[in-house]
Each structure stands twice: as C-alpha cells, then as structure tokens.
Amino acid sequence: MKTKFLLLIVSVAFFACQSSTTGSDDLKKMNLNGKVKSMKESRYDAVEKFGEAVPDEDSEPTVVVWHFNKDGNIQKEFREKRDDLFLSKEYIYEKGKLKEIIEYAQNGEIRRKNLFIDNEGVIEELSYDKDGNLKGKYINKYDDKNNLVEIASYDSEGNINFKFVYKYDDRGNRIELKSYSSDGKPMYISTSKYNDKNLLIQSEFTNVHFDEYTHENYYEYVTFDKHKSWTKRIEYDEDSAPEGIIIREIEYY
C-alpha cells in the first residue's frame, strides 16, 4: 500500500500539467504517433502466474479516456473506477493555447474551474471552486523549449503550499523531479531513464523528507500498433516482480 501511494504521488507530480499550456503537442508527451482521436488507458494491478505477468483478478482497473483535437491537444478527459465515472475534464483553447480546464463531478455539475493566463514563459493558473471562489493558484514556468521547469502552488491567501522543479534531457524527456515543501525543505526526488525511442524504461523515487525510502520501477513495452504507439506496458519493481499492467486502446482520425 505504501509503495502504491508513493507511486501515485510521483505520477501526479511527474505528469502535472499534462496538457500543454503553450500549444505544443500532447501526443508526443504521451508517446503517441499519428493523428490520434482518442485513447483509453486501463491500468491493472499485476501478479505473476507461471512466470508471466498477468492482471490481478482481485483488483479493478483504473481507466482514463482522452479525446484529442486535430492539433494533437487534449480536449476531454474521463476517469473511471469500478466502471463508474468519477471525474471528467474539458479543455478549452484559444489560438492554440490552453485557456481553461473545467472539471465536472460524477453528477455532471462543475466541481472546479482553472483559468490560464500567459505571461511570456510564465503561466499563471487560477483555480476556482464550483461557486466561483478562488481556492488557489499555480505559477508554471517554462524554458525556451517550452518545457515545464517549475510549478509553485499557492493557497487563496498567497501562501506557498509546495514547489516542483523539473529537469530534461536534450531530447525533451523529463528526467528529474524535485519536490519542496512550503518551508523550502526537499520532500522527494524522482528520476527517469529512457531508451533511444524516448520510452520510459526506469524510474526511481526517493523520499528524502521522512525515512529516506527509495523505490525503483522498470518498464517493459510488450505490444505496439501499426503507428508504432505502444499498446501494452508492464511495470516491475526493483526485485523484478510485476506491479502493474497498462493496456491502451487507440483510435485515429
């Protein structure tokens, strides 16, 4: 349980601002090729049977569905658990740049709305609740290659909550994440390695704030479609035990 919780934290932080606020291609960030219309991604807990990684029959998959526009940017996002829709998002663009994300609750009512203000390499993201009250903001900083290099989160009073700092390799792959608490102390570090096709093959998470806990994961890509987008990936821990299986169903324009 501890491992899964820590990996969830890293996943949220590492893929924060998944949809580009600067108008670049979301498909590239998700290792998708061609003109993708939609993708359904199902993540299963994994176990080993007869020497092979298979989905755990006792667990239900977490499902995320993305719809993309013809520019390759996310338009809609749906998240499901146990066949129930518990979250949906709508992405609104203006002249190719992300301007607004509307998040809906299960009953279809607006739960949160985030507005984006572009200040030449610094994106201010304002987060409002369903009643229009400001709940907080994010300051997202980008480098000259449109890579997200820093996220600072603030509450509605302007007090900092946390900060993420990112580093990239020469090919634009995100290779390091450092997280800092509100008082500037380091919380955790995550590093990633990629193959020559820019596919993630190894990640390491270290909690430097509490107990110096470290966890490693390795990734195997099993199947690809005709566009060379991967459709099945197996995740292993540092002892080569399977932890998760991701299945992708991709529709093209």
Q: How many domain regions?
A: 1
- Number of extended strands: 17
Going by CATH, the architecture would be Beta Barrel
CATH topology: Porin
Tell me what the structure shows.
This protein is mostly beta strands. The chain has a single domain (2-252), classed as Porin. It is built from two helices and 17 strands. A 16-stranded antiparallel beta barrel has the order 1-3-4-5-6-7-8-9-10-11-12-13-14-15-16-17. The longest helix is centred in the N-terminal third of the chain and has 13 residues, at 2-14. Mean pLDDT is 88; it is low at 1-12.
Characteristics:
253 residues; mainly beta; Porin; 16-stranded antiparallel β-barrel; 2 helices; globular; disordered N terminus
Concise synopsis of the structure shown:
The chain is mainly beta.
Please specify the SSE layout and strand pairing.
Blueprint (H helix, E strand, L loop, with lengths): L1 H13 L11 H4 L6 E14 L2 E4 L6 E7 L5 E8 L2 E11 L2 E8 L5 E9 L3 E8 L4 E9 L5 E8 L4 E9 L5 E8 L4 E9 L5 E8 L5 E12 L5 E8 L4 E11 L1
Antiparallel strand pairs: 1-2, 1-3, 1-17, 3-4, 4-5, 5-6, 6-7, 7-8, 8-9, 9-10, 10-11, 11-12, 12-13, 13-14, 14-15, 15-16, 16-17
